[in-house]
Design goal:
Blueprint lengths: L3 H17 L28 E4 L4 E3 H6 L3 E7 L7 H15 L8 E6 L7 H10 L6 E5 L2 H10 L14 E5 L4 E5 L5 H9 L15 H4 L9 H10 L24 H9 L1 H6 L3 H9 L12 H42 L3
Parallel strand pairs: 3-4, 4-5
Antiparallel strand pairs: 1-2, 1-5, 3-6, 6-7
């Protein structure tokens, strides 16, 4: 569902799980329902035409499902709540699965607003979220998409209330389950790879979401888990722009009150036509930060975590610079004291 209260429940619930289990104990999936369902075959799933972001037409079952391992999400490109975050988390899943995507497993994001989401809109959305090979954003006629999503269990009658879970499926093995990209991505990766023994094993195990994203572990900071779940799919701290801007030392570039307001109520900031917010949206392909239902206290915790990470990065950079200067100085002294 896309209601803000539900968004907050998803993020805060996942954050609490992560804080408890940045350790390996997060192997259990409370969203998963992994009982095999062999009925989800050619006699159940529709074989209707769909169109991807590049304008290619496929028969849904024959071309995209039959004999494949798949990951399916539901989105619409004008969503201002959970869809951008879902898509960003799918992007992180794509990154973690690596070369398996498009070879061993295929990713599909189906628009539930096909009247407005034509290939050109999906293309812009795909480029904004760095969608790679093996991941298709799909649309079609409203009638056909309604049948497809109903068969897949997405039966909401209001756009802003559609399901946020993803579907994992193996057509060959008859294995279908639902999962969530808002939990531990490493656990989702394991669940995907368990669909089929022929999926290529991952080259290395990543200890946690924080390690996967390149963050230093700063435990006991309440903003860390929220940042990992709500922000890290779109932003880095000190590693350059991603879907959105790099947040390193953001407190030195923007007033704290503005940042706290923007993190907690970006929709309100955009509605006020704030020039900084509008300029950022324009720079990043029109994408606007969704209202994630975070309180001002949550926003303050996230900003405190960003500040702590930024301080560490700055201190490390200063240390490297000092070490470099010291080495250069030693080399200079050596040059003058060496015997001729």
């Amino acid at each position: 569902m896309c209601r803000l209260t539900r968004v907050a429940e998803i993020l805060i619930g996942s954050a609490l799980v992560t804080m408890i289990a940045l350790a390996p104990a997060l192997a259990q999936d409370r969203f998963s329902n992994s009982a095999p369902s062999s009925r989800w075959g050619k006699d159940y799933l529709p074989n209707l035409p769909v169109i991807d972001q590049d304008g290619n037409t496929f028969q849904f079952y024959d071309d995209l499902i039959a004999g494949k391992n798949v990951i399916i999400s539901f989105i619409f490109t004008t969503c201002t709540d959970i869809c951008p975050l879902t898509t960003a988390r799918m992007g992180l899943l794509q990154e973690r699965l690596g070369d398996s995507v498009g070879r061993d497993v295929f990713m599909y994001s189906i628009s539930i607003d096909p009247e407005n989401d034509r290939p050109e809109q999906l293309k812009n959305f795909a480029e904004a979220f760095r969608v790679g090979p093996g991941w298709r954003l799909l649309t079609g006629t409203p009638e056909d998409i309604a049948i497809i999503r109903h068969k897949l269990g997405e039966r909401s009658k209001v756009l802003n209330e559609h399901r946020h879970e993803i579907l994992l499926g193996s057509s060959a093995g008859g294995n279908w389950s639902k999962d969530s990209v808002f939990g531990d991505i490493e656990r989702v990766v394991r669940n995907v790879r368990s669909l089929d023994p022929n999926i290529t094993p991952e080259p290395a195990t990543v200890a946690s979401n924080a390690a996967a994203a390149g963050f230093m572990e700063v435990t006991n900071q309440p903003g860390q888990a929220l940042f990992i779940k709500a922000c890290s799919s779109c932003h880095t701290i000190g590693k350059g722009d991603k879907i959105g801007p790099d947040l390193a030392s953001v407190s030195s570039r923007r007033p704290h009150d503005w940042l706290k307001s923007f993190v907690s109520r970006p929709d309100k900031v955009f509605a006020a036509k704030d020039p900084v917010a509008l300029a950022m949206a324009k720079k990043y392909r029109g994408l606007r930060m969704p209202n994630l239902g975070l309180s001002e206290a949550d926003a303050a915790d996230v900003l405190a975590y960003i500040d702590a990470q930024s301080y560490i990065i700055t201190a490390q950079a200063s240390g490297r610079a000092a070490l470099h200067d010291h080495s250069a100085h030693q080399g200079h002294d050596h040059k003058h004291t060496a015997p001729k």
